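Re: folding output
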Amino acid sequence: MENMIKKRKILLIDDEEEIRELLNIYLSNYGYETFEARNGLEALSILDSHAIDLLLVDIMMPKMDGMELVKQVRKQSGILIIFMSAKSSDMDKISGLQMGADDYIAKPFNPLEVVSRVQALFRRVEKYSHVLEKHTPPEDIKIGELTLSSVSCSLYKSGKPLDCTSLEYKILYMLMSNPGRVFSKAQIYEEVWGEDYLGDENIIMVYISRIREKIENNPKKPMYLKTIRGLGYRFEKQK
């Protein structure tokens, strides 16, 4: 079991009571504090009154489905999110990631896999926080109209805040800290996700696309985040 000083709070959002109960048992056994919601509307109510650290979200639910919930949450929060869904095609997973999820688990699943994915996400966040504490630059990173705040882990364009998930921030920090340097997909994945790269290009492409939608005036003709064909990605220096 994980030895945690502060209990992480996880919100389980699924209209199937059996799934919520099963995950509640396993996550509680690993030291997590859990909350339950049957749909997106109930989840929003809980988020308003509790400091939740991670959402486990089913996609197909009544009243407000998982996609709409995540869309609403991402307008104001970079909270960790894992989708759980019986929709398991590559396009379903890509759509979920594009919507703002940090991970995607196909149903049916082994509850121990869910626990492992949750633990892995928290480890990545904690590892990166420690790196920032040790190597935080004295000033924010500023390139062109963009500012990446190393103190608040926030992204701004022309002084206006932009929504930025934890993984998007990590990718931007890696690239903006090294303008002009080309990073391969494998380098980005292994640094940001903290796992060996097994050749799954889709997840990197999805995140690069999401970042471009936020920072570029014309995502199809990016001026900041460039693709270097056959090599990887580079954040352009600005005059």
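--- second protein (sequence, then structure) ---
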Amino acid sequence: MMKQLVLFLLFSVAVFSQKTTETFESTTLGEKREITIGLPPSYEKNTTKKYPILILLDGEYLFDPFYGALNYGAYWDDLPETIIVAINQNKNDERIEDSHFDESDGVPSEKGVKFFEFIGGELLPYIEKKYRVAPFRIIAGHDTTAGFLNFYLYKDYSIFNGYISLSPELAPDMETRIPDRLKTIKQPIFYYLSSADGDVKALQEPIKKLDENIQTIANPVVNYKYDLFKGASHYSLVLYAIPNALYQIFDAYKPISSAEFTDKIAVLPSGYVDYLVNKYDILTKNLSLKVPVRINDFKAIEAAILKNKAYNELDQLAQIADKNYPKSMLAEYELGLMYEKTGDPKKAAKKYQNASQLEEIGDLTKDMMMDKFDDMKSLIPKK
């Protein structure tokens, strides 16, 4: 029953998403290439919103699992809506030619050089001109293409913020070159690597060595995760890895969970609003996403403030509410709550009355504000 529900939700989300395939005429490659673009469900409705971009190699078979995982996560607001651009490479030995490298020096050669330049010099500028793209880019691939995508880390500045390397076939010396690059890199980088105990034998030892070398790095701007899946094959590991990779990269995006509230917020002696501000600052800094503070996150911080009787912090919370939802009653409500808890029913009544004239939000209603107004008014001493 649970599997049927998940499949239904994935299907329902996909129905309202936009998937198109087009032919891209590349000057760099000197040929036409087929790309598939997946736009998020809200793309046409929210005309000012910008979205992260995911470039998918092996797009003909990686598109659907990534598309489903991203849309499912976005449905629950665990993952941000993301634009997917998949490069289809199922023609003859296209993926092998696209990923070609020189065996002697381990860098792209022949068509591999052109394909490398095609992605950075043609495809990305085209997508970013045509669509509303946030300045956060991810690239993903499987085996041959998973090895190839690492070449973008060889540059002084990486054009990608996140790398998803699924059972990569590594070029010569890549297991040391990538760690050396990550050791000195200055920009924030998310790097995900995966393999399986049933993976292709020739790939396992280089991947293991790459993981060991990256593990020795102590660079705070590098967010690294490695998964070795038990009982999985070279192909089935992809379905295990995709959600893990996405949740690693977009971990900062997730709303406050009950575990986060209990283990990290409620136990603080003070600074509950600072925690909220920092959470969204990290989201902007690391993922280049500007997301309004979620109503449920407001309520979580409010609950922590009330639990620890840090009522003065409700003033700070009201300021954030006013900035994020200026037309709503949220800010006036938080101030009313502060005055109520600090024993000033007259000021509390005024704030609740003000709130009743503004837009409802979340579970806050005009009737609720008037009820609280009446409650506070009854507590005001008679002259």
